[in-house]
């Protein structure tokens, strides 16, 4: 099944480009290491566990 999906994308570059763009858009919404750290430190501070 995976091989067929890869072949379908190789045979349809426009679709591959659309999927790639959508993947980039989704990935751009994921937390970064920096804002994850900031959120964790903020949670610790609210819980009274700040360093």
Give the helix/strand layout.
Layout: H1 2-11, H2 13-27, H3 33-46
Structure description:
- It is built from three helices and no strands.
- With 51 residues, it is mostly helical.
- The protein has one domain.
- The radius of gyration is 20 Å and the shape is rod-shaped.
- The termini are far apart.
Shape: rod-shaped
**What is the number of beta strands?**
0
Helix content: over 70%
Main beta sheet, described? none
Element-by-element helix/strand order: HHH
Mean pLDDT: 93
The class by helix and strand makeup works out as mainly alpha
What is the tally of helical segments?
3
What Rg do the Cα atoms give?
20 Å
Low confidence ranges? none
The domain count comes to 1
Estimated share of beta-strand residues: under 5%
From the N-terminal CA to the C-terminal CA, the straight-line distance is: 50 Å
């Amino acid at each position: 099944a995976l091989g067929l999906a890869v072949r379908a994308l190789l045979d349809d570059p426009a679709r591959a480009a659309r999927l790639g763009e959508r993947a980039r858009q989704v990935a751009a919404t994921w937390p970064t290491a920096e804002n994850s750290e900031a959120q964790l430190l903020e949670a610790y501070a609210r819980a009274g566990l700040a360093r």
